[in-house]
Structures are given as C-alpha cells and as structure tokens.
Amino acid sequence: MSAALHLQRGLRERLRRGEAHLTLVEPQAYLTYHPLLAEVAAGTIDPRHVVVPLRRELTECRVLTARITRIEHATRRAWADAAGPGEAPAPVELGYDVLVLAPGSVSRTAPVPGLAEHGRRFSTVGEAVGLRDHVLEQLDLATTTRDPALRQAALTFVFVGAGYAGVGALAELEDMARYAVRGHHNITPDDLRWVLVEATDRILAEESPELAEHTLAQLRERNVDVRLRTTLESAAGGVMALSDGSRFAARTLVWTAGVRPNPLLRDTDLPLDTTGRVRCLGSLQVLGPDGRALPGAWAAGDGAAVPDPHADGAPCAPNAQHAFAQAELLAANVLAALADGPHASGIAEYRPDTPACSTSLGLGRAVAHTRRGGRLTGRRAWWLHRARHLRRLPSGERRVRILMDWAMTGLFSREVVPLGRPERRERPEQADERPG
Ligand SMILES: Cc1cc2nc3c(=O)[nH]c(=O)nc-3n(C[C@H](O)[C@H](O)[C@H](O)COP(=O)(O)OP(=O)(O)OC[C@H]3O[C@@H](n4cnc5c(N)ncnc54)[C@H](O)[C@@H]3O)c2cc1C
C-alpha cells in the first residue's frame, strides 16, 4: 500500500488521463498496521483504527480484493483468485508491465502435539480482539471457580516465540490484566503467571541486541518468566511440556514463533535466496541471472532479500522500519526507471537510517534507543515509540483517530470489558401472535 501511495502521487496525472494503470492485489480490503496490534489487544486502540482502508487512500488505483496465486514474470502475467476458503478457485489472469512484489511473511508453524487445539495466533485484528476477550474471560473464570487447579490454569498465560508479536502481545496483555484484576475481589497481580518461551538465546531477533537485552531486563523485573533456549514440546490436554523438563497446565497458549517468507514467492519464476526471499539488488530491483537488474521486477519488505549496508550486506531484518523505507525508495526508483529506463542514473540504492528501535511494554511503559545511542525507558520511551509509529502510519485520518483513542484512555483509563464471541447468534424467540 505504501509503495502504491507513492506511485499514485508520482503518476497522478497519467493515471487520470488513462495513460497508466496502477493495480493493487490484496486479499484484505485494508492494510493492517502490525506494530500497534498489541495495543488493540490491550484495549488502548479501537480495532478499526489500526487498519487503513485501501480504497479510501488509493483513489486512483484499481484495488482487487484477491490473492495472487502465481506469477510468470517471463511473460509478464500473474493469476489472482478471489475465492474464499473452501470455495472452488476462480483464477483471473492479469497482464502487467511492471511488477512490485511485497507479500510479506507468514507465521512459522511446528508439529507440536496439542498446538492445533490449544494454540492461538497473533497477527490479525480478529486474533488480537479474540485474545483480549479470552484473557479477560480467564480472569472471570478464575474469580468464580472453586477448583484450585482450574484457577491456576486460567491464570497462566504462555507465549511461544519472543519476536515483535510475542513480546508486544505479552507485555501489553500483562499490563492490561494487572489493571483488570483491580476489579476482581479475589485475584491479585501476583496470582497471574506469564511465561515467554524462546528457542534461541535472545529475544527480539529483529532488533538490536542492546534493545533486546534492555527489554528482557524490563520483562524480568515485571516477573515475566522468560525461558531462553527452550521450546514447547507438547500442549496436549492443555498441559504445557517444555524442553527444560517443566510441565504445567495453562488455558492460554499464544503461538508467535517466528515468520517465514510468503510461500507465494515459490510460485513465481523469480530467484529466491536459501530462506525463500526474492533476491534483490540494493536498488530494490529483482536480481537477474546475469547479476544485473531483471527488467520490470521490483520487491520490498519482509519477502525481499535486500542487502543491508549496516550489516555488511546481509539481508535486511524483516521489520516495519525497513518495509516502509523500502516502499518509498522503490516507488521513486520505479518512477525514475519509467522515465529513463532500468539503468537510469536516478535509481538510488537502499541506505537505511541507523535503526531507531523501540518496544511498547504497556500503558506508559516502553524501551527505546535513540539514533545517537541514548537509552530511554518508561514514559519518555513510550511517547517516542508512539510518535515513531504514528509518523509511519500511511493515513492522516487514522493518525487522528488513534491519537483520540490514546487521549480517551488517558482520560478514562482503558476498557476491560470482554465482548464475548460476536459470531454467537441467539435464535429468535417464537412469535406470540401470528402476523396480521
Ligand atoms: C503482531 C506483529 C507485531 C509487529 N510489531 C512490529 C514492531 O513493533 N516493529 C516493527 O518494525 N515490525 C513489527 N512487525 C513486523 C512488521 O509488521 C513487518 O515487518 C512488516 O509489516 C512487513 O511489511 P511487508 O509489507 O513486507 O508485509 P506485510 O505488512 O505483511 O504486508 C504483506 C501484505 O501482502 C498481502 N498478501 C499476502 N499474500 C498475498 C498474495 N498471495 N496475494 C496478494 N497479497 C498477499 C498480505 O495480506 C499483506 O497485507 C510486527 C509484525 C506482527 C505480525
């Protein structure tokens, strides 16, 4: 969406005169701004405000709500399918001159017994709202039950995978639950048990090691049980069995164990690296077989292996900072190539700013590192984190709505009412009288 917005701006007159066409194919009718999803789970942002409707912002663009299933760049053709899950596929062929590929990544899964039955994911607005309701329902259950084992399981929350999603969701929900239990006569914050399980020896692999260390120290200070070099072996029967030998019951299991490049990339004729990302030059052009740019093919974001000059040319980490910066440069480079050809002098290399990293850890709590090497925690870090994300959000209207949400939370504190399952339908009662 971000690349399309910049291209729309640069091509506006030609789009209006019908000399150029811009088509965005995306299965959702909106962009989800993932870095603020944890605040949706915590009830500080309205769920609708972290999504940006594509058709509202991309007024000169053809938006197709469909999924690309295959791309054959050699013949400049792609196939889109609008069929829902379980429906017969109805692919539509699309021809193009220039391809911009940015399908992001998908969650990594593992064959862990019991995971399918007990695990939850955390990458969509629906999942964030569902998890929030589930956590609040566990507090209600723990207050009511007289069974000590059930109460313990209800108050135990396990997150597997300490990337952005796992750390952000755990920290925000822990903070929300700490606030919510004030209304429960028989639960204290010390009764809640939060466990973060991570297979590697560090958290937040997409961020700098310094920020990760700093965040880890903050979580441990809040009594979050962070288990590094540990994996979930089984969740069968709702009993968590970890590789360090511990076993305990938990009614909440959130699976956020990493991401992998979108499998769509394998259904293209473009070159991939060993991890499955599209191989790109620093200009964001896809690498051709001769080591030069493949004409008409561009890629950005989590699905693109773009050399990072700050990491000796290793591919950029999959994060929002790179994705948004690459989208902007990609659009400028496409416009330069349209004007002067694929080797135009106006095509620039991706040179990211020094990473500016931060993580939100609850209301008024965050850790942030400034570009000059400063380390912040608490409210100052939190405001800096919010300002960075607001600036990046590609919609002025959504920025205002989120600012209003934060102002309302400041005035009235957060909302801790579970909405229940919205899809549950009551049967209409039998009519007392016959019509007429
Ligand atoms: C819960 C969560 C929290 C995060 N927090 C942070 C954070 O705090 N800071 C940070 O820097 N990063 C964070 N990230 C990572 C960040 O969101 C990603 O790095 C960034 O969104 C990548 O951008 P992208 O455009 O490559 O992919 P995406 O934003 O994932 O966009 C890809 C789009 O392609 C669409 N798509 C997929 N398949 C197809 C197909 N076959 N056809 C058509 N369209 C398709 C998808 O629907 C999606 O809209 C977080 C991620 C998650 C899930």
From TrEMBL:
Top-rank taxon, per record: Bacteria
Classification via InterPro entries: FAD/NAD-bd_sf, FAD/NAD-binding_dom, NDH-2
EC number of this enzyme: 1.6.5.-
Keywords, sorted A to Z: FAD, Flavoprotein, NAD, Oxidoreductase
GO molecular function terms listed in the Swiss-Prot or TrEMBL record: oxidoreductase activity
Ranges of residues in domain FAD/NAD(P)-binding: 13-321
SUPFAM superfamilies in the cross-refs: FAD/NAD(P)-binding domain
Family of this protein: Belongs to the NADH dehydrogenase family.
PANTHER family recorded: NADH DEHYDROGENASE, NADH DEHYDROGENASE-LIKE PROTEIN RV1812C
Descriptive protein name: NAD(P)/FAD-dependent oxidoreductase
Originating organism: Kitasatospora misakiensis
